[in-house]
Design goal:
By secondary structure, this protein is α+β, with helices and mostly antiparallel strands. The protein has 9 helices and 9 strands. The chain has 2 domains: about 120 residues, Orthogonal Bundle (Cytochrome Bc1 Complex, Chain D, domain 2); about 90 residues, OB fold (Dihydrolipoamide Acetyltransferase, E2P) (Beta Barrel), CATH 2.40.50. The strands form 2 sheets. Strands 4-5-7-9-8 form a 5-stranded mixed beta barrel. Strands 1-3-2 form a 3-stranded mixed sheet. It binds heme C.
Length: about 250
């Protein structure tokens, strides 16, 4: 992972932090609907195309290829898969156009989202995409869900353990989930996590010392941070570490 790419992701994430999260990735997993289900109409994408060309095209190029194709293909998927369309929409609406964020009507942003979905090869369907649909639609590769990529901001739940050399590790961890909020979860969110069962994975925690790990040793914790996938040495560049419950019962 290039360091500046991590910093870009962080900067964009920080921009989005002020926006309350509505509808979690978990909602979409539960609903089971993905971008492959024909979630927008061809007519809507056509409308979105005009709006895109006027407001986005000058920077992102008419064919979505601007900024190393950040809106298209592999890079689009790397940034948005294993998340809901709502996250994509919220980021787009709150940060774009870069020179006038939030300046378009909400329905225009939805149409633009339809155009971007079309440009990424997701099929159209009979009905247009609606704002209310967004939390229930998951962005996913053609072959189904897969592991979050290196550099993704992730949320993990597991047990906080101190190793023999003083290194901090998350054991019995769940597969990392996408999050767009790098900072501490609120008490309600932590309470929900309390119900989630533990997993079987192990992740190293980088810079754990900044997050007072001694006071959380042996606890069931939530760790957030940037994922570094490295078989045998998977780890998280931490942005938050919080106790869910004292003790990590099995
Ligand atoms: C003035 C130039 C400009 C305009 C106009 C503009 N953008 Fe952007 N946009 C950017 C830049 C710069 C980035 C960051 C690119 C990077 O990180 O490499 C960006 C990033 C994005 C991202 C985040 C991509 C990601 O995966 O992190 C989205 C989504 C996006 N733009 C959508 C839009 C849409 C939709 C419009 C039109 C409503 C638009 N932009 C208009 C300059 C612009």
């Amino acid at each position: 992972m290039r360091k500046h790419a991590l910093i870009d992701t962080l900067a964009l994430t920080l921009l989005c932090m002020a926006i309350p999260e509505r509808g979690s990735a978990q909602d979409a997993i539960d609903a089971g609907k993905t971008v492959w289900a024909g979630v927008y109409s061809a007519a809507q994408a056509e409308q979105g195309k005009s709006a895109y060309q006027a407001s986005c095209g000058p920077c992102h190029k008419e064919d979505l290829s601007g900024y190393e194709s950040i809106l298209k293909g592999d890079r689009f998927m790397e940034h948005w898969r294993e998340d809901t369309l709502l996250s994509f929409f919220t980021t787009m609406k709150s940060t774009m156009p870069r020179d006038a964020p939030g300046s378009l009507n909400e329905s225009v942003y939805v149409d633009i989202a339809a155009f971007i979905l079309q440009g990424n090869g997701f099929p159209s369907g009979p009905a247009p995409l609606r704002k209310d649909d967004l939390p229930g639609i998951r962005v996913q590769g053609k072959s189904g869900p897969s592991e979050l990529p290196t550099g993704a901001l992730a949320q993990l739940v597991g047990c906080l353990v101190k190793g023999p050399k003083g290194e901090w590790t998350l054991t019995l961890a769940n597969p990392p989930q996408r999050t767009r909020n790098p900072s501490d979860s609120n008490p309600q969110e932590l309470k929900l996590l309390d119900a989630s069962p533990l997993g079987t994975r192990t992740y190293g925690l980088m810079d754990a010392i900044q997050y007072r790990p001694d006071s959380k040793e042996g606890h069931k914790v939530e760790a957030k941070g940037f994922l570094i996938r490295d078989p045998g040495n998977d780890r998280i560049n931490l942005t938050s570490l919080q106790t869910i419950t004292a003790g990590c019962g099995r």
